[in-house]
Design a protein that fits this description.
Elements lengths: L8 E5 L4 H10 L6 E5 L9 H10 L4 E4 L13 H21 L3 E7 L22 H16 L4 E5 L2 E2 L6 H11 L2 E5 L3 E2 L2 E2 H14 L7 E4 L6 E2 H12 L4 E5 L19 H7 L6 H12 L1
Parallel strand pairs: 1-2, 1-3, 3-4, 4-5, 5-10, 6-9, 7-12
Antiparallel strand pairs: 8-11
Helix pairs in contact: 1-6, 2-3, 3-4, 5-7, 7-9
């Protein structure tokens, strides 16, 4: 990755999550930037006074907000927590970023859509979240742009990494523990390797174009699949003998409703920032090499 030598200070919130961890790893190869990584223990972005104080003590050029409430099913029974972290806290952070002239890059989700589309979602398509999680993330988008109009929002989907808990690592574990597993085959989407998203964010920062191009963007790895096909790819690449059986969403009830179609159109982000997005199959191979 070719990056400029601009001496920027970059704050990453939610540093212990998948994307936060990938940015930490990536930062080791980017010595021209000053990175500040904080988890909730170091900075609770829902605390306006603490956030104001933190920004006042630092000269932050970019804030990458990876902090999020991501327990999709649990959010149905504790909406207050979901809206606090994914909505209210984002509003606080955005207001502080605007006050301090810091560029906010906020991470959102495909769950802001209802999944009834039949072609890839563009940034301008109508949102209609069908879960508390999706509603809280949409509120975060709205409040981020209201409180800091220069914000860049990146919606992503089906995120996995060698870090944290995710579909890939769950499949690898279950394939070792069981002789057969059932995986939903009627939800379409785009797996996203968090390392690729981290690299894309840094390319956006390095491009020098972020100030002139605020707003919403979609990022996911190239290609379309379903959870069953994704699991089959994991099985083949890991050499597992576990049988993987396709089932319908109806056969696997969850507390929160999932979008049946979560494919994101990434043409805006690729053309605006000249990004090359890897195919999901290639990125899965890269991730599995790290986990193996």
């Amino acid at each position: 990755m070719s990056l400029s030598n601009k001496q920027a200070t970059i704050l990453v919130t939610g540093a212990n999550g998948q994307l936060g961890k990938e940015l930490q790893l990536l930062s080791l190869d980017l010595p021209s930037y000053t990175f500040l990584f904080v988890a909730k223990e170091g900075l609770n972005i829902a605390d306006a006074a603490a956030t104001e104080k933190y920004f006042a003590a630092q000269r932050i050029d970019f804030c990458i907000n990876c902090a999020a409430y991501t327990a999709v099913d649990k959010a149905e029974s504790e909406p207050e927590n979901a809206f606090l972290v994914n909505g209210i806290a984002v509003a606080t952070l955005a207001a502080v970023c605007k006050k301090n002239n810091s560029k906010l890059i906020h991470i959102s989700t495909d769950y802001v859509f209802d999944g009834t589309a039949t072609q890839p979602y563009k940034e301008t398509d109508q949102t209609n979240p069908v879960s508390i999680y999706g509603q809280s993330k949409l509120q975060g988008e709205v409040l981020a742009l209201e409180n800091c109009p220069s914000t860049i929002i990146i919606r992503t989907a089906w995120v996995y990494s060698s870090f944290g808990n995710n579909f890939v690592k769950t499949m690898l574990r279950l394939m070792k523990e069981r002789e057969s597993i059932n995986v939903v085959n009627d939800q379409l989407g785009c797996p996203t390797y968090a390392a690729d998203l981290a690299a894309a964010i840094m390319q956006i920062i390095a491009s020098g174009k972020s100030n002139e191009n605020p707003g919403i963007y979609h990022y996911a790895n190239a290609g379309i699949t379903n959870w069953y096909e994704f699991a089959i790819a994991i099985k083949k690449l890991s050499g597992s003998a576990c049988a993987v059986n396709p089932i319908t969403t109806a056969a696997y009830p969850t507390a929160a409703k999932r979008p049946a179609y979560s494919v994101l159109d990434t043409s805006k982000i690729t053309s605006t920032f000249q990004l090359a997005i890897p195919a999901w199959e290639d990125s899965l191979k890269s991730c599995l090499r790290l986990i193996a």
